[in-house]
């Protein structure tokens, strides 16, 4: 990995230290519109249980909490810096017991099987060590008939090619790609 790639990874991919804190501030601003669009595509209901994998600084969690006001919203991130920023941004939801933010990896989600109605990830799949393993883990924690949405901004570095195939390989059905003003999103359902 080059020096520049290493700096970008510590800032945005797996944020840590001062660069990670700065990266979180930048991501909170630059990913907000894409997160709002993806959340809208998921059609969040008031009593939904929703997981954001790679929750970053918690902007998506904040949006989800407003919509799932009688539900449960959880977030997981591999970066301690991002979990701390997400906790600060969502302190009221945590106090009320409706928001649960944890340090962890998408490849080993700390939740029971068939718990969530919906799941999403914004600009994070491209840094997962193994996308299909992460997608299978998301499928495990989703209820039958539940939806997943993977959103990407134009600057995410994620290629469109192969995304629908990865979701199919992980066991999802009704896989479709949607393009919008803020990027693209792949939606799928757990059969």
Our Rg estimate from Cα atoms comes to 15 Å
Number of DSSP strands? Answer: 7
What percent of residues adopt helix (DSSP H or I)? 40-55%
Low-confidence stretches: 8-12
Work out the helix count.
8
Average of per-residue pLDDT values: 88
Order of adjacent strands in the largest pleated sheet: 3-2-1-4-5-7-6
Strand content: 25-35%
Order of helices and strands: HHHEHEHHEEHEHEE
End-to-end Cα distance, whole Å, is 39 Å
Structural class based on helices, strands and sheet pairing: alpha/beta
Note the overall shape: globular
Largest sheet: 7 strands, mixed
Describe this structure in words.
It is a single chain. This protein is an alpha/beta fold and 191 residues long. 41% of the residues lie in helices and 27% in strands. The protein has eight helices and seven strands; from the N terminus they run H-H-H-E-H-E-H-H-E-E-H-E-H-E-E. Strands 3-2-1-4-5-7-6 form a seven-stranded mixed β-sheet, with helices on both faces.
Topology, please?
Elements: H1 3-13, H2 17-30, H3 32-42, E1 49-53, H4 59-67, E2 72-77, H5 80-89, H6 91-96, E3 99-103, E4 116-122, H7 131-141, E5 142-152, H8 163-169, E6 172-180, E7 183-190
Parallel strand pairs: 1-2, 1-4, 2-3, 4-5
Antiparallel strand pairs: 5-7, 6-7
Helix pairs in contact: 1-2, 3-4
Briefly characterize the structure.
This protein is an alpha/beta fold and about 190 residues long.
List keywords for this structure.
single chain, alpha/beta, 7-stranded mixed beta sheet, 7 strands, about 190 residues, globular
């Amino acid at each position: 990995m080059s020096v520049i790639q290493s700096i970008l990874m510590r800032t945005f991919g797996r944020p840590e230290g001062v660069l990670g804190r700065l990266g979180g501030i930048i991501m909170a601003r630059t990913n907000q519109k894409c997160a709002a669009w993806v959340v809208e595509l998921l059609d969040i209901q008031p009593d939904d249980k929703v997981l954001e994998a790679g929750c970053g600084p918690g902007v998506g969690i904040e949006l989800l909490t407003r919509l799932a006001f009688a539900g449960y919203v959880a977030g997981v991130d591999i970066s301690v810096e991002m979990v701390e920023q997400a906790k600060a941004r969502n302190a009221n939801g945590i106090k009320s017991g409706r928001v649960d933010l944890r340090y962890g990896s998408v490849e080993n989600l700390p939740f029971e099987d068939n718990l969530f109605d919906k799941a999403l990830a914004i600009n994070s799949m491209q840094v997962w060590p193994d996308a299909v393993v992460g997608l299978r883990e998301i499928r495990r924690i989703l209820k039958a008939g539940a939806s997943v949405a993977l959103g990407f901004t134009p600057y995410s570095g994620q290629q469109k090619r192969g995304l629908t195939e990865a979701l199919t390989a992980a066991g999802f059905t009704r896989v479709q790609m949607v393009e919008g003003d803020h990027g693209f999103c792949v939606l799928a359902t757990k059969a």
